[in-house]
Amino acid sequence: MIDAAELKRRTAELLAAHPPATTDRLDFLRARFDAGLAWVHYPEGLGGLNAPRSLQVVVDTELEAGGAPDNDPRRIGIGLGMAAPTILKYGTEEQKQRYLRPLWTGEEVWCQLFSEPGAGSDLAALGTRAVRESDGWVVNGQKVWTSSAHNARWAILIARTDPDVPKHAGISYFLCDMTDPGVEVRPLRQITGEAEFNEVFLTDVRIPDSHRLGEVGDGWRVAQTTLNNERVAIGGMRLPREGGMIGPVAKTWRERPDLRTHDLHQRLLKLWVDAEVARLTGERLRQQLVAGQPGPEGAGMKLAFARLNQEISGLEVELRGEEGLLYDDWTMRRPELVDFTGRDAGYRYLRSKGNSIEGGTSEVLLNIVAERVLGLPAEPRTDKDVAWKDLAR
After folding, report:
1. Which of 51, 83, 92, 100 is the residue whose CA sits 20 to 30 A from 191?
2. Tens digits of per-residue pLDDT, 264-275?
3. 282-330: per-residue pLDDT in tens?
4. Phi and psi dihedrals of 152, rounded to 5?
5. E strand intervals along the chain
6. Judging by beta carbons within 10 Å of its beta carbon (0-12, 13-18, 19+), is residue 338 exposed, middle or buried?
7. Looking at the annotation, which residues are catalytic?
């Protein structure tokens, strides 16, 4: 069993063999992965040591103290939080060896081709088709709200492979090469002025069968692993006290007594407590992950994340008064990551509106919590036993 002392020893060996001050950043990250110190709970040979997940913080703390570079996790969050755990669970040994190392080092950015114009909240209604042809698949369709598609080398993709069965049963899961000539990425400009999202058009995109993840027709089950990890990645990220959106508001409150009112004070106190409860709940959820894969509890964290961000950013704009109406820059950009705390209050207020949509709408997540966490009766469904091709659209 790998313990904290052993991890500290191995981390010290890594730092001695590859001094961060004189080692190329990418070379260091590759060496860290090969030493099993990337994600310690992963198997040996795949960036880990089969160690308890809770010990990752030991490695991270030692490396930070030693001045080591990180892998810029915000830029590659989809790969780390969604693609990697799905590949680990359902991928072949060849797929794991091929994709996990460059994914973790950031050499290959990933995106998620799930949502469609007619299949967002009802994701299983997706219409993108994958048709079998010789030793591979030909894919045609459209995806939307795709974060990082303009930077991505690979995508996790779900497509319909059998229209003659009910919608959940006819889906398969693929790893899609974003450099295929049939992939077209178009920016979607948001209310913030930026275009972190995209719409993606797939025209006769060819995917080898070796890039399929899981069995044909079992894509919905594979996608649940992705979606559960996505909600944890969005709503359960590790934060210090007053990390995230509550930090700038609390800082403004302390530094600007001229802006204070009794009503704003009461609202800030409530939101501060709510943010701290959510942070500690996230810590508890991460401890539960040590025992296995994330479950539907991540939906609750994602719900809290969206509600808090919207309420806190609204309070911040109100607290700042006229200053809160200012906006720093409306330039059309296609950023590599979302920086909630690096911009002004106006940006946070506008960007947080998307939090209740992206990563699963709050309405859908409420259903998940009701049915899978609380055990309440499911909503009546008329499409459960109807072939996808016969559904009204």
Report:
1. 83
2. 999 999 999 999
3. 877 766 665 555 666 677 888 888 999 999 999 999 999 989 988 888 8
4. -80, 145
5. 110-113, 129-133, 136-143, 154-160, 171-177, 183-188, 197-208, 212-213
6. middle
7. 230
